[in-house]
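TL;DR need structure tokens for one chain.
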Amino acid sequence: MSEQIFTIVVADDEEELREAVCRMIRWEEIGFRLVGSAGNGLDALQMVEQLQPDLLLTDIRMPFITGTALARQVRELQPLIQVAFLSGYDDFEYAQRAIESEVIAYLLKPISMAELTEALREIHDKMESRFNALKPAGGRGSLPLAVASLLLDSFAEQPEEAKLQQMLADCGMVFTAPYALTVLAIRAGQLEQDAAQTVDQVLRKYYSSCSIVSGGRVLSLLVSEDDFARLGAALDELYYVGKRLLDESCVIGVSRSFSQLRRCTSACREAVDIQRLAGESGIYRISQIQAKLEDRAEDEQDTAARLATLLYSGSRQELEDYLTHIFADSGSDMTAMRLLLAAQSALERSLEDGEVALLLHRCGLDDPLAAGRDRELFRRRITDLCLAGRDRLSENRREGVSFLCDQALRLIEQNYMDEELSLNAVSEQLHVSPNYLSANMKKYTGDTFINLLIKRRMEAALALLQGGGLKVAEIASRCGYSDQHYFSYCFKKYYGVSPARMRRGEGSE
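>> reply
TL;DR here they are.
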């Protein structure tokens, strides 16, 4: 039995073949775990969104959604998913032209179970090789000092751009004018130095990049000649690699793009701040966190930085324990005042105007000099302020996701009758990746985007059926289905009866 187990969904409209494949293949022995099977493209797409398998084995000719369209859509949902096609000889030349290099294998029907088993072994070996290629190889050697200097050091004198470019030439980075730059900050549990190598293996498929490990996170400098048109795809793939190889709580902060290398240090701080503010796993840009984030002060002290980190992404218990420790370590009133000012400064960078003043008022800190006359009460009020501020920041993050999902639900409500409405179309309107929107919709609503869209269409179809008068084909068209048979399939799957029987008031078939 292979060490690496990959999950698989099987999709084929030939029921006999599909059931035979699911039943007769000894999945565990060849390194797979069968998690689902589907008889058409729609069901397969729903399964991929719900189950997030590593491999989709699908016929190329499928009802409702063809295999090639399905392959494209599932990659929008899960960038690292592998697709293998099963198909007849008639499709071979077409499929090779259309999807060459896009699938991990192309298997021809008819195929015996022994032949399919052997083919799946080979697919597993390819997947394992690709997976292992992303793992840190060890012995990377010294860090790219030029990139470390650019990202982490503030230059007393600003070097010329040409000299900074030359500094990076030894790191394998290429600059062709005009170019744009951005910085990523990736946090994922305990990182080894070789994690930077893994990150670069992913990023360099899209852009020239160089990564280092510093402060428990990977920092990556990217150079683009296309103004980061493919950055969404790169980040999606990096996020999945991060979750799989590094840590489930992978968080990626993305700085704004910039054009001068001397701005690398401030962009690095911005990416780190965004990653800290995000707290939960995912990919975050400044527009998703806060529009007003300012560069942090150059002389921020370690205590203030630690307090800000706990306010942004720590638990209540971690924050309270830290404050207790600081107060126990130092009985100085000046320490308490510095903590108050640091907390106030961190909160003002993230909360709306007036919110911090309201928190200060509620915690009895309108006049800190007066409050500080009672030392113990002053410390308790500072702790209360920090805990209340931390809760408000956490609520803001949830509100950001809620706002995004509410927008998506509103677009479904307004446009469910449009046949072109899809996860990809909605994500483009909301300026997020399909994967990011899908994951947050599932977390926020408890269901997938595709299921929510189908639910709304079916509710509308039922109302039109019960209203009487309209033909089934017209109802299908008004609910976003140009194919009446496709509509009837979805309706029966959802309600358990066909549209015609539902109209007659008959029970489940």
